[in-house]
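Homework-ish question, so no full write-ups if that breaks the rules, but can someone show me the predicted structure for this set?
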Amino acid sequence: MQPSDEELYRLMKNGNQDAFAQLYERREPALHRFALHMSGNATVAEEVSHEAFVQLMSPSARFDETRGSLESFLYGIVRNLVRVVRRQGPVAEPVEHSFDPDILGELIGNETTAALHRTLRDLPERYRDVIVLCDLEERSYEEVARILGRPVGTVRSRLHRARALLGAKLKRLQTASEVVSA
Amino acid sequence: MSCIERITELVECARNGALPNSELRGHLKVCEGCRERWDTEKQLNGHLRAMRAGAAALPSSQSRREALMREFERTHRPRVVAMRIPARMVPSWAWTLAAAAAIVMAIFVGHEAGLRGRHMTSHSVQAQANTANAVLYEASADASALSTDDFVAIPYTPPLAQGEMVRMVHTEMYPEALASMGVAVDPEWTSNMTVDMVVGEDGLPRAVRISDSN
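A: Not a homework solution, just the prediction itself:
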């Protein structure tokens, strides 16, 4: 049986590097994707997911098991960091980065999907959260409710509203492309 | 059931990739608004799937991982914590006492040095004689030579190197320990015996003899 995140965290706090590595392998990919979808910028996503683990290992980390899961705690850090970065405005790309910041847009390939992804970035945070976690990360309503610290009903209604907003955008994109092709 | 409630169900069907039930299908035939929403939801699913695939194809940064592990190692390295006694914990009279102790110590050391100077001649002659013997043994670096002059070479010790300096150590030993070094021990010896020991530069004893003071 695999140790829980919280068990790994306790071991990590006692200086166990293997536990930290295990925790990183387990949680970093999803956090990185979450940061990418939330920020829409590959550089920001990398920085933010890295910083989340730096904060986790810091002696001043304020994780309290009695108040929630470690996963929620990590998602909370990433959300806050993305919020701070977005508030600061556009991120300057370092010269040594050879990839496009809109790497996901390139990977998607489809123009409409890429445009839709850009729309996702502009959604209010409460809608972006649920779209990313429920539909892009394929988490259940219960898991997302736990991560966000919201009731299941709230998560469901926000998701439906978010999908309606994206759907409306999709229709506009389709109409625009029809006009161009005509 | 209202259209709003039906749309809620349609969204869930689209998300789960399931077909609407017969009642909903019947409604979709007659309600244009719900049908449009159903079509949009299905298309949206396709786009979201493409976004998922795009994000899953992102390479993970190995250098970031390594940097984190190095950072972890650095922050969790055991540290030597220097303890500092707060100044207010040391009473003011302690400094006076410390100064007085230092003065007494200086007087005592000076006095001792004077006494030593007076007895230097006889002591140094004896010491030189002992050192001369030790150096003589060392010069030959031969266990049999060490066995001369009542010295017994200690077995199982490495031979002295040519030119290696030796020291003469005046100490006390149990008769059993002396026996284990190859010294002939009288069964009547019950207390510690005073011995002279030849010690090499590496600190290992090479020869031993029962001191005359016994």
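Now go work out the reasoning yourself. Hint: The longest helix of chain A spans residues 152-181.
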